[in-house]
Amino acid sequence: MSDDDESVLYVMTHGLESPERCATPFFLASTAAAMDLETGIYFTMNGPQLLKKGVAEEMGPKGDDGQKLAFFIDQALECGVSLYVCQPSLDLNDLEPEDLIDGVKMIGGAAFNGMAMEASAVVTF
Predict the structure, then answer these.
(1) CATH architecture of the region 7-124
(2) Extents of the domains making up the chain
(3) HSE of 32 in the Cβ direction (CA atoms, 13 Å)?
(4) 16 neighbors 46 (Cβ within 8 angstroms)
(5) Cα–Cα nearest to 40, from 99, 114, 100, 97
(6) pLDDT tens digits for 24-66?
(7) What is the pTM of this model?
(8) Contacts by 14-19, CB closer than 8 A, 24 or more apart
(9) pLDDT (tens digit per residue) in 62-91
């Protein structure tokens, strides 16, 4: 994220336990990216569960009804949204980097703090 342009950073802390929250950060991030804002989503705590290969095709905000999470993730990636994951949160969820979907970048606490300080807005879910 750059302080030269307007940017928004979404922070996703919820995972499989809250399917009703899973699509909103991707939807909002896609919208922000379409508005030409530099946009990223940072997954921490239980958030990395949503990035595990195969999960997004099986769950969605309305359970078996409506769009699956994969739709919202694909839309965000197509719009240029960057996906970041917290390494300690992978450990918390017994995940390895190779367990995640393609396109996810690993960052540490210092990188996240830098992005948060440079962002025009930080929104947490």
Answers:
(1) 3-Layer(aba) Sandwich (3.40)
(2) 7-124
(3) 25
(4) yes
(5) 114
(6) 999 999 999 999 999 999 999 999 999 999 999 999 999 888 8
(7) 0.94
(8) 14/45, 14/46, 14/47, 14/125, 15/45, 15/46, 15/47, 15/48, 15/49, 15/50, 15/93, 16/46, 16/49, 16/50, 16/55, 16/59, 17/46, 19/59, 19/60, 19/61, 19/62, 19/63
(9) 988 889 999 999 999 999 999 999 999 999
